[in-house]
């Protein structure tokens, strides 16, 4: 699907739930999270129908995200249904990996191709601090399981915050040495609970400079549909990626739409505008009408990021990152 700016939109990020078993400081408040009701969230059948319509409109890659997608019991069934859709060439998952070790086999069998795992620190006490309730050990077992089962490439998302984990950048690079693990450093965004542009913000360029003091990075490559720029340390098995979400926008090569947990097609991560697809679906819309809604959403996509438009009320857990 070509948008008004000539970009090919073929990637759908699907937030299957707003619920999460963690409370990362930059994403969700610790207490008092307002949850969508069961009825507000798309059912398995509704997700299937919308994604099928997307594939008929031109979507070729689907990423399942959340909230935490693995807390939704029917996520493997959804993945199975999506992996059988002839138009879909890539189905991937973004997860905090707390439940990954338990579910990896089931997900692989269902047809999941690969996982991106969020992990901001390699130290247990700091992991507890940033997630407010997780266990680092479970994530590390999840990573091993994903590698063993070939849910690859395994990418690790690290949101960098100056006083929290900038000092661990080299430890993450060492993580790429002996295993095909692909670490991506992400600039924190001022959304939801993210402090973003405060003192905690570190630009991807600054991170790259710190890495370059100890390692010589050469241009790398990695399959995927996302905005990361990849490098690698020669001889290392994995790669090192940078996601300049704030400092250098990649909007000119934007390729995505988002389906929010409450059934809206969102045109841009940063901007709040979106189109209701759940309503028409529940009112009996036929497949062709749903396909048409995808076409409309694509035409609404903005040229890109506008620094004045970050919206603190947009919660990452309903949009899916
Ligand atoms: N500003 C902006 N940031 C994005 C966008 N897509 C992803 N990101 C950021 O990149 C992070 C990582 O995204 P992932 O869910 O791992 O997916 P990805 O990197 O797009 O996917 P692949 O490259 O296909 O593996 C997200 O949590 C966001 O912080 C986007 O369209 N705009
Ligand atoms: C919202 S989570 C959903 C999937 C899953 N729960 C996870 O954490 O991987 C998707 C991604 O958004 C990122 N994220 C959340 N809030 C962010 C923020 N304010 N700035 C940058 N990235 C953020 C997380 O680090 C994670 O990689
Ligand atoms: S980043 Fe992911 S794991 Fe952390 S609170 Fe948000 S949805 Fe949950
Ligand atoms: S900020 Fe909006 S337009 Fe830019 S890459 Fe992200 S989703 Fe696309």
From TrEMBL:
* Amino acids binding S-adenosyl-L-methionine: 26, 67, 118, 189
UniProtKB keywords = 4Fe-4S, GTP-binding, Iron, Iron-sulfur, Lyase, Metal-binding, Molybdenum cofactor biosynthesis, Nucleotide-binding, S-adenosyl-L-methionine
Molecular-function GO term, any one? GTP 3',8'-cyclase activity
Binding positions for [4Fe-4S] cluster 1? 20, 24, 27
Q: Does the keyword 4Fe-4S apply?
A: yes
What GO biological process terms does the UniProt entry carry, in alphabetical order? Mo-molybdopterin cofactor biosynthetic process
What catalytic reaction does the record list?
GTP + AH2 + S-adenosyl-L-methionine = (8S)-3',8-cyclo-7,8-dihydroguanosine 5'-triphosphate + 5'-deoxyadenosine + L-methionine + A + H(+)
Q: What is its EC number?
A: 4.1.99.22
Any idea which positions bind GTP? 13, 63, 94, 155, 256-258
The yes or no answer to whether the keyword S-adenosyl-L-methionine is present is yes
- EC class (word): lyase
Task: Say which domain of life the source belongs to.
Answer: Bacteria
What does the note under cofactor report? Answer: Binds 2 [4Fe-4S] clusters. Binds 1 [4Fe-4S] cluster coordinated with 3 cysteines and an exchangeable S-adenosyl-L-methionine and 1 [4Fe-4S] cluster coordinated with 3 cysteines and the GTP-derived substrate.
Q: Which residues form the Radical SAM core domain?
A: 4-221
What pathway is this protein a component of? Answer: Cofactor biosynthesis; molybdopterin biosynthesis
Q: Which cofactor does it need?
A: [4Fe-4S] cluster
- Quaternary data: Monomer and homodimer.
**Functional description taken from the UniProt entry:** Catalyzes the cyclization of GTP to (8S)-3',8-cyclo-7,8-dihydroguanosine 5'-triphosphate.
Q: Which family does it belong to?
A: Belongs to the radical SAM superfamily. MoaA family.
- Listed name of the protein: GTP 3',8-cyclase
